[in-house]
Amino acid sequence: MSGKIVIATGNKGKINDFKAVFTDYEVVGIKEMLSDFEVEETADTFGGNAILKAEAASEALGLPVISDDSGLSVNALEGAPGVYSARYSGVNATDESNNAKLLEALEGVTERSAHFTCVIALSVPGEETRTYTGVLEGEILTEPFGTYGFGYDPLFRTSEGIYLGMINSGEKGKISHRSKALKELMKDKEVFEKLTSN
Ligand SMILES: O=c1[nH]c(=O)c2ncn([C@@H]3O[C@H](COP(=O)(O)OP(=O)(O)OP(=O)(O)O)[C@@H](O)[C@H]3O)c2[nH]1
Ligand SMILES: [Mg+2]
């Protein structure tokens, strides 16, 4: 292990995805350090919410932190659920209730193209926050396939024909919106070193 990466997320599925990409680092979710960490996601863009989460965490800890704001945009639904992906079926939404609502919204719809977006924000105390974006194109299936992943993964097939519910986090880490954003972050070598120097 060479350094620790702190991620301002409470989503265990995201943490698994990060671990699959950052195999050489110790990946730590913010709740392990601040058990009551909570940020209201009041922005209307992925980038805006990612910045809110990263800055709140790095301020609280006095350390460099990354965050992830992500979601699914369906063309036939004019980009919904988008930034509301986690809360699509209401305040007490679960992955299951969100998937059920999505299938219902697309009942009888044949044009099912969609994409995932992931914006990673990196906040270093005293510096301007930077963001990195990754997108994964595909379509929404008419029924769930597989049990891997989290969120809408079982309902998503990529444009290359890969079912996200049927691949493990290592395989997902080669192709996902999240890993694309992380690759952009790693290209920013100077700031990436600050993140991993804990
Ligand atoms: O099938 C999926 N595969 C993915 O790879 C993926 N990435 C995001 N999502 C969906 O979008 C929401 C993010 O919302 P979100 O960024 O606010 O995160 P969250 O509230 O779950 O955790 P936090 O990071 O805010 O603590 C998530 O809950 C999921 O519904 C995904 N679904
Ligand atoms: Mg959230």
From TrEMBL:
Entry keyword annotation includes Hydrolase: yes
Active-site positions on this chain: 69
Primary enzyme class: hydrolase
Record-listed Mg(2+) binding positions: 40, 69
GO MF entry, a single one: dITP diphosphatase activity
CC cofactor: Mg(2+)
Domain of life assignment: Bacteria
UniProt organism field: Lacicoccus qingdaonensis
Protein name: dITP/XTP pyrophosphatase
Any one GO biological process: purine nucleoside triphosphate catabolic process
Residues given in the record as substrate binding sites: 9-14, 70, 150-153, 172, 177-178
Sorted UniProt keywords: Hydrolase, Magnesium, Metal-binding, Nucleotide metabolism, Nucleotide-binding
NCBIfam families: RdgB/HAM1 family non-canonical purine NTP pyrophosphatase
Keyword Nucleotide-binding: yes
The record's free-text note on cofactor binding: Binds 1 Mg(2+) ion per subunit.
Catalytic activity: ITP + H2O = IMP + diphosphate + H(+); XTP + H2O = XMP + diphosphate + H(+); dITP + H2O = dIMP + diphosphate + H(+)
GO cellular component: cytosol
Record-linked InterPro entries: dITP/XTP_pyrophosphatase (IPR020922), ITPase-like_fam (IPR029001), RdgB/HAM1 (IPR002637)
Summary of subunit composition and partner proteins: Homodimer.
E.C. designation(s): 3.6.1.66
Protein family according to the UniProt entry: Belongs to the HAM1 NTPase family.
Function comment: Pyrophosphatase that catalyzes the hydrolysis of nucleoside triphosphates to their monophosphate derivatives, with a high preference for the non-canonical purine nucleotides XTP (xanthosine triphosphate), dITP (deoxyinosine triphosphate) and ITP. Seems to function as a house-cleaning enzyme that removes non-canonical purine nucleotides from the nucleotide pool, thus preventing their incorporation into DNA/RNA and avoiding chromosomal lesions.
